What we know:
Radius of gyration: 17 Å
Number of helices: 2
Number of strands: 0
Mean pLDDT: 90
Distance between the termini: 42 Å
Structural class: mainly alpha
Largest sheet: none
Order of helices and strands: HH
Shape: extended
Low-confidence stretches: none
Amino acid sequence: FTPKALDAGLSKAGLLVAGASNMFSRWASGFKSNHVNKLPLFDQKTSDSVGGDPNIRYYHSYWEIGEDEALVIDAKPPKCQTWNFQLNNHWMESLDYRFH
């Protein structure tokens, strides 16, 4: 481990952070433009091309909720070994559930 290796690693980490947040923001903007308040299957080729697991199916969307409204999620779990639902912000970061 050397200072040069540390510098190279930190530089790559910065690119990852900037690239991922930019990509997720572009995706969220597209969801907002194309299917607000609907939940379609995400394009598998796009998911696979950025490192998504080819055995996992993702559904992404954008929700607009008024001050006097609530997002109610009714779901029937699929027939599979594991599944989850994750609510994210615009940059696809999981929300901090401790205060909600």
